Amino acid sequence: MLPKKIETAMNKQINHELYSSYLYLSMSAYFMGLNLEGFAHWMRIQAQEEMTHGVKFFDHILSRDGTPKLDAIKAPEAVWKSPFEACQAVLKHEQFISKSINALADLAVAEKDHASTTLLQWFVNEQVEEEANANLLVERVKMIKDSPGGMLMMDRQLAKR
After folding, report:
1. What is the pLDDT of residue 145?
2. How far apart are CA 91 and CA 23, in angstroms?
3. How does pLDDT run across 71-86, given as a tens digit for each residue?
């Protein structure tokens, strides 16, 4: 049986993950508006991945006789000043998600919930990868500066994801 504190925290995390999906879909639309289809594709793949993360928590709660609670998801931003600012927002958001996952992992240890600890270790490792990818995205866009040619080359690279 899933401890109530863990269930409540995981339900909150579901909301964070689904918000992440909304955010990346919004970014995908933003990049499509700039005719940066590779960036848009990268963000759409991110959106799908975040939805999958939310479902992992949802299924874990169900498998432990808990009750998933789906709260309203706030509307994400839709416009950024530049592609660089959007990429910085990705990194900032992934850092927020990492903090949230780490707090959840700490709670699972405190509650001696070994099944949730195992699941959360996967998420801890996943967030290392997510932050590294977001940081790389930021650093590469930063290198491009105001080079349209560089932006188009990066756009093509991101389309291969």
Report:
1. 85
2. 12
3. 999 999 999 999 999 9
Residues of the chain with pLDDT under 70: none
- Where b means 16+ CB within 10 Å and e means fewer, 19-54 reads bbbbbbbbbbebbeeeebbbbbbbbbebbeebbebb
Instruction: Provide the whole-model pTM.
Output: 0.95
The radius of gyration of the chain from alpha carbons, rounded to an integer in Å, stands at 17
Structural domain harbouring 130? 4-158
* Residue 62 belongs to domain with CATH number: 1.20.1260.10
Cα separation, 61 vs 134, in Å, equals: 29
d(CA 55, CA 75): 20
Nearest in space to 115 (alpha carbons), one of 23, 13, 3, 11: 3
